[in-house]
Design a protein that fits this description.
The complex is a heterotrimer of chains A (383), B (183) and C (441). Chain A is an alpha+beta fold and 383 residues long. Helix content of chain A is 46%, strand content 13%. Chain A contains 15 helices and eight strands. In chain A, the strands form three sheets. A three-stranded antiparallel β-sheet of chain A has the order 1-2-3. In chain A, strand 7 and strand 8 form a beta hairpin. Chain A is globular, with a radius of gyration of 21 Å. Chain B has 183 residues and is mainly α. Chain B has two domains: 10-95, NADH-ubiquinone/plastoquinone oxidoreductase chain 6, subunit NuoJ (Four Helix Bundle (Hemerythrin (Met), subunit A), Up-down Bundle); 129-183. Chain B starts with 12 loop residues before the first helix and ends with a helix. With 441 residues, chain C is an all-alpha fold. Chain C has a domain at 83-305 and 353-423. The longest helix of chain C is centred in the first third of the chain and has 33 residues, at 24-56. The chains are: A alpha+beta (383), B mainly alpha (183), C mainly alpha (441).
């Protein structure tokens, strides 16, 4: 593997040198393209169909989320974080709430912690299901998309019953939860777990041993653990490269240390390993949910938090394991009601930087597969 | 017309011939006068298809079919494949004709002279092809060609056929060797 | 007047195709029938594909236009015809204009020789199968020029992919076809045939579909063809030229409206065309199933009822769904429409029981039913498989199918000539070797 830092940017301005110089082709993929997952624009330099290099042009979805934070109170900014990774809004909320809680030195009560874990893990499954459907669609299998969306619907129904929203949930509050779990929440979650277990087998039946799927994913978009660490790549991509790093285990937050689960790792760091890692992660999430729903304690759902939040002067960096990788919030407080600066470390943005390295010397079709396997959400990349 | 031919006698044969010949000549002229290489290739395909139709009129459907598969369907696709990658803007600025009028006129005159000689000779009643070409009627054309090539008692043209295929094999290997720097 | 009627009637009990018989009137009628039938088949395919794919993917598919979306393809066709005809600014206008017509012409012309029955073909050509392969290979020209003329990168790459793909899979396809043609020569005069009707007749004479001939050689040849034909028609899992997720829509990205619908029409009629080749070569064309196991006049009669029964079943399905329609006044027209459709189907079914009709439609029915089976396979593939990558596609074509096809061809030839091979090659060589060993000792 080449050192990722040695990759030179694309030289896009060199004109064709000779009359028959048919080799190199610069092609613009996106921002309107069915497989760039939103508005990612990739400029590819091709030799025939081989990728010589690529450059991502991002920012089409930039909304200035971090700047908005400086003009909102801590509570007012909370719903905005849902709009970053909109397929895993619950995780975003969890990261932000916990960061502010650390700044305020409060801790959510145990009941709130348990419900938080359940919702976050449900959200992880939903996010992975959406990833699987779209990733398979990119590789040409159109059916898994409908299966995963059918089953993701059940998760969204639970969210809707809990907080009224399906996508941008705004489920958590700083210091705990706003809503008590509705009647039958535990039953719904248990039903969901037993419903979705055979469904995951169903996805695997369609794909895991499918010859074409194997050929399209094995050895495609390989990245070594060393390169992952050098580029700051986290999440399933890092674990598929053989690095056992999951913030839920490494720096336990919420009450993840109470639960028994495993961190799946891959060996080859290719697209197939990332697929397998995510499939196992879904099953592990179900395990966590099963344990959590059994053990929800009684008690309050909100800690004592002042109505007007004025955290002491200082700064905090808090990161959680979002479905896509390490999601970190760096918040600087100047003692006023509004944060002085909020900086988000979005996993999608950092993981996207590995695209060039993973796609060099691969084919155009692999670029699509690799974009899919990185599982990016442009709302989070551009913020 | 050959009375042995199955079915009805063909209709309006000379008109079809003149029509096809005209298409071929116009196509041929377009091939060399178009500046855009893709247009030239399309004109060439038209010419080849018209030629296939001529073969059909000569009761040689097998040759016509092979003409379509090999030339129009196979070779011309490869031509187009290469031509498409040439930058057209550049090609249109290039000089179209080499200054080889003299050779060209000489070759054309020689070919024309040959045709005129053959035509005048046959109209005067001289027999230019003493053996007489075996004509195979429509229904047995393919089988007839097979007999000529692979007859059990040593087809007349079997040796030539095999030599030609060997030549093609050599050409394929040569192309691979020339194109690939490292095998 | 009488002469005209006689001329028209002259063909009805002929044992030749109108083209061979030189009957211009019936040839024209057949051309029109095939053209209309093909268009209806494409429209039906459009609806069926969306419906079947939808049911495979736990959704309903078109439901709004007409009962169960039956009128959806017509609505789509209308929309496409009324759309603005856009030619991109930088496109090569003439070539852009011609390309869809080349594709459609190539796709429709091949049906000249497709044998729906011993006399139900427009004409019977001496070079039938060669003609089909040749003309269908011309459609790649249309695709290449369409991609090039659009003057855009995605269509160009799509065109390059499809030309490479179609040219390479034609080779494997041709080898499989040749091994089937070899089997036609297994008769007393040992002359084979390229004629489509002749091929089916050879299967009838040998009392065996070529699929089961020389087990497993026939099945292998069929498998090679069945794979290559999917690649040849650019369908999933070999639909790289129009890979949505990579090249948006491949070679027809810049096309819209009527021109786009021509590509659509051509794709589906090409699918039907290659399926008909497969049916003709390996599945006994118009011959009914189980000719050996269930033979005799009783079974013939029983099988001749099947077309009518099939239509009656379709009609019954329509009536069942009519009964299931919502009893809301809004659905009144749809309910009546569905019942009417069912009535038409049932009526067709009843007409098919009439002896003169029954005797004539059996072969067309069996041929269409076999082709329909392939069409279902196409849809099934699309619902199941991911897409191959371009180099893998080439690998499958050149490194798997081509060597298999070559080996298969040699094996078929050796097996067909096994007695000659035994008496003229194996025995003399063996004797010579034995002699050599004896002298050595």
């Amino acid at each position: 593997m080449t050192d990722p830092r040695s990759l030179s940017p694309l030289d896009l301005d060199t004109p064709d040198k000779t009359f028959l110089d048919a080799n190199e082709l610069v092609i613009n993929m996106g921002p309107q393209h069915p497989a760039t997952h939103g508005v990612l624009r990739v400029i590819l330099r091709l030799d025939g169909e081989k990728v010589l290099g690529l450059e991502c042009v991002i920012g089409y979805l930039h909304r200035g989320v971090e700047k908005i934070a400086e003009n909102r109170t801590y509570t007012m900014f909370n719903p905005y974080v849902d709009r970053m990774d909109y397929v895993a809004a619950v995780s975003n909320g969890l990261g932000y709430c916990e960061a502010v809680e650390r700044l305020l030195s409060v801790e959510a009560p145990p009941r709130a912690q348990y419900i938080r874990v359940i919702l976050t893990e449900l959200n992880r499954i939903a996010s992975h299901q959406l990833w699987l459907g779209t990733h398979a669609l990119d590789i040409g299998a159109i059916t898994p998309l409908f299966y995963t969306f059918r089953d993701r619907e059940e998760i969204l129904k639970i969210f809707e019953k809990y907080c009224g929203a399906r996508l941008t949930t705004h489920a958590f509050r700083i210091g705990g939860l706003q809503y008590e779990a509705y009647d039958g929440f535990e039953r719904d979650v248990k039903n969901f777990v037993s419903f979705v277990k055979p469904k995951i087998d169903e996805y695997e039946e369609l794909l895991t041993t499918n010859r074409i799927w194997l050929e399209r994913t094995k050895g495609v978009g390989v990245i070594s653990g060393k390169d992952c660490i050098a580029l700051g790549v986290t999440g399933p991509v890092l674990r598929a490269s053989g690095v056992k790093w999951d913030i839920r285990k490494a720096q336990p937050y919420a009450n993840y240390k109470n639960f028994d689960f495993e961190i799946p790792t891959g060996e080859n760091g290719d697209t197939y390993d990332r697929y397998i890692v995510r499939m196992i992660e879904m099953r592990q999430s179900l395990r966590i949910i099963e344990q959590a729903v059994e053990g929800i304690p009684e008690g309050p759902i909100m800690a004592k938090v002042p109505k007007v939040m004025k955290p002491p002067v200082g700064e905090v960096y808090h990161s959680i394991e979002a479905p896509k990788g390490e999601l970190g919030y760096f918040i600087v407080s100047d003692g006023s009601t509004q944060p002085y600066r909020v900086r988000v470390r979005p996993p999608s943005f950092v993981n996207l930087q590995a695209l060039d390295l993973m796609c060099r010397d691969q084919l155009v079709a692999d670029v699509i597969a690799v974009i899919g396997t990185l599982d990016i959400v442009l709302g989070e990349v551009d913020r | 017309m050959n009375p042995q031919i199955a079915g009805n006698p063909p209709v309006a044969t000379p008109y079809f011939f003149y029509g096809l010949a005209a298409i071929m000549i116009i196509g041929g002229i377009l091939v060399i006068t178009r500046k855009n290489a893709v247009h030239s290739a399309l004109a060439l395909i038209t010419t080849l298809l018209a030629q296939a139709a001529l073969y059909l009129m000569l009761y040689a459907p097998f040759v016509a079919g092979v003409q379509i598969i090999l030339y129009a369907g196979g070779i011309m696709v490869l031509f187009l494949f290469v031509i498409m990658l040439i930058s057209i803007e550049r090609a249109e600025k290039e000089r179209q004709f080499n200054k080889q009028w003299l050779v060209g006129i000489a070759a054309a005159a020689a070919l024309g002279g040959l045709f005129i000689t053959v035509y005048t000779a046959t109209t005067k009643g001289r027999v230019l092809f003493p053996e007489g070409r075996t004509s195979y009627v429509d229904m047995q054309n393919t089988q007839g060609i097979a007999n000529l090539l692979f007859d059990q008692h040593g087809g007349t043209y079997m040796f030539a056929f095999e030599i030609a295929s060997l030549l093609l094999l050599v050409a394929i290997i040569g192309a691979v060797v020339m194109a690939k720097k490292r095998i | 007047m009488h002469a005209l009627v006689q001329y028209i009637e002259s063909y009805l009990s002929s044992d030749k195709t109108p083209g061979t018989a030189g009957n211009w009137f019936w040839a024209t009628v057949y051309v029109l029938l095939v053209f209309v039938g093909l268009s209806i088949a494409v429209i039906a395919m459009n609806w069926l594909e969306r419906k079947i794919l939808a049911h495979m993917q736990v959704r309903l598919g078109p439901m709004r236009v007409g009962p169960h979306g039956l009128l959806q393809p017509i609505a789509d066709a209308l929309k496409l015809l009324l759309k603005e005809d856009i030619i991109p600014d930088g496109a090569d206008k003439v070539v852009f204009w011609i390309a869809p017509f080349i594709v459609v012409l190539a796709a429709f012309t091949v049906f000249v020789v497709v044998p729906f029955g011993p006399t139900h073909a427009i004409t019977d050509m001496n070079i039938g199968i060669l003609f089909m392969l040749g003309v269908s290979s011309l459609s790649v020209l249309g695709i290449v020029t369409a991609g090039w003329a659009s003057n855009s990168h995605y269509p160009l790459i799509g065109a390059l992919r499809s030309s490479a793909q179609m040219v390479s899979y034609e080779v494997a396809m041709g080898l499989a076809v040749v091994s089937a043609i070899l089997m036609t020569s297994l008769n007393e005069s040992s002359t084979g045939t390229l004629s489509m009707i002749g091929i089916v007749e050879a299967q009838k004479a040998q009392g065996e579909w070529f699929l089961f001939k020389f087990f497993p050689l026939g099945i292998i040849a069929f498998a090679i063809f069945a794979i290559a034909m999917v690649a040849e028609t650019n369908r999933a899992p070999f639909d790289l030229p129009e890979a949505e997720s990579e090249l948006t829509a491949g070679f027809h990205t810049e096309y819209s409206g009527f021109r786009w619908s021509l590509f659509f029409l051509a794709e589906y009629s090409a699918m039907i065309a290659v399926s008909s080749i497969a049916v003709t070569l390996w599945l006994g064309g118009w011959l009914r199933p189980f000719p050996n196991l269930l033979h005799g006049t009783t079974w013939d009669l029983a099988f001749s009822f099947i077309p009518g029964i099939a239509f009656l079943l379709l009609g019954a399905m329509c009536f069942y769904n009519t009964a299931r329609m919502p009893k809301h006044p809004l659905f009144k027209i749809q309910t009546i429409g569905l019942a009417g459709f069912g009535a038409v189907l049932a009526l067709i079914g009843l007409v098919m029981f009439l002896p003169p009709v029954r005797e004539r439609v059996g072969d067309i029915f069996w041929f269409s039913a076999k082709v329909a089976g392939f069409m279902y396979l196409y849809i099934w593939y699309r619902g199941t498989f991911p897409r191959y990558r371009f180099d893998q596609l080439m690998k499958v074509g050149w490194k798997v199918l081509l060597p298999t096809g070559l080996a298969l061809l040699i094996c078929t030839a050796l097996w067909a000539m096994r007695s000659e091979v035994w008496t003229q090659v194996v025995v003399p060589v063996g004797m010579g070797f034995a002699d050599f060993v004896r002298r050595l000792l």
